[in-house]
Amino acid sequence: MAGIGAVTSGLTSAMGLIKTLDSAFDTVQNFGTNTEEAYRKQLRAQQDLALKQLKARQATDEAYMAEQTALEREQLALNSAQAGDDRRRALKRAVAKQRANFAGQGISSSGGSAEAVLLGLFEESEAEKEARDRIDAMKKASLDLSQSQNQGLNILQKTQLEEKQQLEREIRGF
């Protein structure tokens, strides 16, 4: 009987050891799972932060570009107004000079070829104005295009970062 008691005691000790090992294995397995979970959360937090920083930088860049574009448009409008004033003053001087020239020659500036010369000065001035207006319109279109290209680039960068992050999560099995 002493042998059975020793065997039973040995089995009980063995069962206790098995339970202890099983518990330790579960702890190690849970630790690995918890560590993996913590890593996933950390990776996600890093990716979210990177995306948030990109969006913030892009918003700042877009605001700066919008401000610069507005300033350039304002400068363009001021330059255009100044050029218009200069053109009108030059036209008045040219007309006055031509009328004085006609008067000095004894020609009336209200009829015939004298009027045609004066109309030619006005038409030349209008052609210069239209050319300047076309150039201003091209500059404005260029500003708009630059701004829209920047917005497109921002969208591309954001999309690329999101896809890179998604691919990284898929590769790591998250």
Describe this structure in words.
This protein is mainly alpha-helical. It is built from two helices and no strands. The chain has helices spanning 2-104, 112-171. Helix 1 packs antiparallel against helix 2. The longest helix has 103 residues, at 2-104. It is rod-shaped and about 150 Å long. The two termini are 58 Å apart. The relative contact order is 0.09. The mean pLDDT is 83.
Keywords:
174 residues, single chain, mainly alpha, 94% helix
Secondary structure elements and their pairing?
Blueprint: H1 2-104, H2 112-171
Quick summary:
The chain has 174 residues and is mainly alpha-helical. It contains 2 helices and no strands. The longest helix is centred in the N-terminal third of the chain and has 103 residues, at 2-104.
- Relative helix content: over 70%
* Order of helical and strand elements: HH
Mean pLDDT: 83
What amount of the residues lies in strands? under 5%
Structural class by sheet pairing and helices: mainly alpha
What does the radius of gyration come to? 42 Å
What sort of overall outline do the alpha carbons produce when their principal axes are compared? rod-shaped
The profile of the biggest β sheet is: none
Low-confidence stretches: none
Please give the alpha-carbon distance between the first and last residues.
58 Å
The strand count comes to 0
Give the helix tally: 2
